Amino acid sequence: MSSPEGRAGMNRRIATPPTMSVLAAEALRSMILSGELLPGDRLPENNLTAQLGVSRSPLREAMAVLEQEGLIVQAPRRGAIVAPLTAHDIYEIYTLRAQLEELAVRLGVPVIDETRLDRLRAAFADLEAATGDDQNEHTRLAFAFHLALVGLAGHQRLEDSYRSLSLQMQLCMAMNRRARAGLESMREDADRHRPLLDLAVAGDRDGLLVAVRDHGQRTFLLDAEERVDGHSPQSRAWFAEVRSQLERSGEADA
């Protein structure tokens, strides 16, 4: 007669619950990506231990994790702060994002594997179904949609490169969503993604390339240019070109 340990389906090992440092890291990460904490904000331990209900030790462990992720930096005479985003940072993130998405479209459209379109459809359905005021969740779902768009290429190294920008892009997306907060609802934001899905399903590579270039940069970039420092010659030229394009299209004052 077999022992209970040897019978199929008898593995009932209880998963180890998350530690306080893991929970603190998740909470801090959510506060940063949702925009509750802004780039450059100080992170005083006394305030955070009270706010999160943890002691200093797990808080410091959590902050070390976020520092490795690039979300927190140690600033001279200021202590830990949310990692600042400079104008040059935004220039680098957005131009690299655009090049990766355009390469994915060139390689992946028309789509030859229906399962890739199914993934994009599912990501859009999740984005469209999002309700409430959870900005962090909406940002995560928007990134998942764009990751599925890149996945149309069936190119794992390309998708891994895009995924490596995840947290930095979500920071920009959160800034974008704050800039657009008075202009559109979450549902309207989801609707802005629908043309990307429709063009991918239609196999319209040229149309999708144009849509990808135009998507999601408008209000955020003009707002960001006024609020951030740290310009470089490249970023100044790029922001000027973006502003010129928007002025020609009549969107700069929208």
3D architecture notes:
The chain is built from twelve helices and two strands; from the N terminus they run αααββααααααααα. The protein is mainly alpha-helical and 254 residues long. The protein has two domains: 20-82, Winged helix-like DNA-binding domain superfamily/Winged helix DNA-binding domain (Arc Repressor Mutant, subunit A, Orthogonal Bundle), CATH 1.10.10.10; 87-249, Four Helix Bundle (Hemerythrin (Met), subunit A) (Up-down Bundle). It has helices at residues 20-33, 45-52, 56-69, 87-108, 114-129, 135-150, 156-163, 166-180, 186-202, 205-214, 218-227, 233-249; strands spanning 72-75, 79-82. The model has no long low-confidence stretch (mean pLDDT 85). A hairpin with a 3-residue loop joins strand 1 and strand 2. It has a two-stranded antiparallel sheet with strand order 1-2.
Overall outline: globular
Total domain count: 2
According to CATH, the fold-level topology of the largest domain is Four Helix Bundle (Hemerythrin (Met), subunit A)
Helix and strand run? HHHEEHHHHHHHHH
Residues in β-strands, percent: under 5%
Mean pLDDT: 85
The CATH homologous superfamily of the largest domain corresponds to GntR ligand-binding domain-like
Distance between the termini: 76 Å
* Class computed from helices, strands and strand pairing: mainly alpha
CATH C-level class of the largest domain: Mainly Alpha
Question: How would you characterize the largest beta sheet?
Answer: 2 strands, antiparallel
CATH architecture of the largest domain: Up-down Bundle
Number of strands: 2
Uncertain parts: none
